[in-house]
Amino acid sequence: MCNKIAYGDIKIANEASLQMQFGVILKQVGQLYEFAGTDRFSIELEAIQPISPTTKSSKGQARCDISLRFSMENNDTANAIIELKHFKYDKTSEAVADNRFAIMKDIENLEHYKEKDSQLLCYEILYTDNKNYANPHTTAGIKLAPIITQCFTYCQQTVELKAVYEAEWSNHGNKYFMIVTL
Average pLDDT for residues 135-139, to the nearest whole number? Predict the structure, then answer.
């Protein structure tokens, strides 16, 4: 997906288009692994997940961007949840604190999903065309750190994560992608 976006094969205008395009790619790849007649790959966008209340989902009902399920003939299953963010470059406003807080809230929800199922694969993926997020040497100096800390307070709300996470940045031309694996 990263290369498809970077080289212009896929156009991303907002988070919804990122979700839809990534969903299409995942569906095509997932179906290639349906070898036996009863193997099934399924994908759901904006899937409702019951969790204990979090900063983002105070009522205990969360919507995850992408939910994947693969069930095999021998009754083994694999499940994954992916949260996505798209921060478009805007010369008038960086909204850095807002964006950092949004990532923290996603990760907090992912922790709660994983708490219910330790085998669940959980990912936070960020796409941006703003080099300031990925490059510590820009004059804006707003890089999203390679380490996601456990506590972040913004606008009188605090997110406390259970762990510290490493964020891996990749650069594809003038497009930047960050992946956090839980």
Answer: 62
The residue whose two tokens read 């992608």 is 177
Question: In this predicted model, what pLDDT tens digit does every residue of 14-47 receive, in sequence order?
Answer: 999 999 999 999 999 999 989 988 899 999 999 9
**Model-level pTM?**
0.87
The beta-strand segments (E) located in 54-145 are 61-71, 77-87, 121-128
Beta bridge partners of 160: 151
Counted residue by residue, the chain has a size of 182
Q: Which two tokens stand for residue 7?
A: 């080289």
CA 144 and chain centroid, separation:
14
User: What confidence tier does 84 reach under pLDDT thresholds 50, 70, 90?
Assistant: very high
Query: 72 CB contacts (<8 Å, ≥6 apart)?
Result: 36, 38, 39
**Residue 48, both tokens:** 């409702």
Residue 50 CA to chain centroid, in angstroms? 18
What does the domain layout of the chain look like in residue ranges? Answer: 2-181
- Specify the higher pLDDT residue, 43 or 104: 43
H helices of the chain, in order, are 2-6, 15-32, 96-116, 131-134
Name the residue among 25, 106, 24 with its Cα closest to residue 64: 106
